[in-house]
Amino acid sequence: MKKIFYMIALIAVIFVQPGFAQQNTSQSTGLLSSYYEIKDALVADNSKLAATKAAEFVKILAKGDLQTIDAAQQKALAADAAKINASNALSSQRDYFSVLSAHLISTAKTSKLSAEPIYELYCPMKKSSWLSSKQAIKNPYYGSTMLTCGKVTETIK
């Protein structure tokens, strides 16, 4: 009887544990996707869209479902995104995005945010990095002015 109980417990652990990991990764993936949407709005030189996407980013953080990211990191990310949301000036949004990116890069290196590779890219003109799901350079700091300025510096897995 004990053997049957232990077998059932083992099977439950094997099948349930990956489900929790997937849930945490999918929650983090939503946050990362939201970040990419802010980046894409800045690439497109669209300050209104960047503000809207930053507000959505804050809402994802406010849900409090991100168990893989500690509370202090979540608070810093929310504050950074809120500044992007509050600004109407594209240049200010890009400055705030630089800080948001630095915090998210740090988070990505300590927490599993995606099952897919995340690329860290660097703009030598701004002296700032950002994250992307693709290796292709689409610079959020200068948008259409210097769209392809930058390089891939690291792949975060």
Share of helix, binned: 55-70%
- In terms of quaternary structure, the protein is single chain
Spatial shape: globular
The parts where pLDDT drops under 50 for at least 5 residues are 4-25
Q: How much of the polypeptide forms β-strand, as a percent range?
A: 5-15%
Report on the structure:
With 157 residues, the chain is mainly alpha-helical. It is 61% helix and 11% strand. Strands 2-1-3 form a three-stranded antiparallel β-sheet. Helix 1 (2-43) packs antiparallel against helix 2 and helix 3 (71-86) runs antiparallel to helix 4 (90-110). Residues 4-25 have low confidence and may be disordered.
Secondary structure topology:
Layout: H1 2-43, H2 47-62, H3 71-86, H4 90-110, E1 118-123, E2 128-132, E3 151-156
Antiparallel strand pairs: 1-2, 1-3
Helix pairs in contact: 1-2, 2-3, 3-4
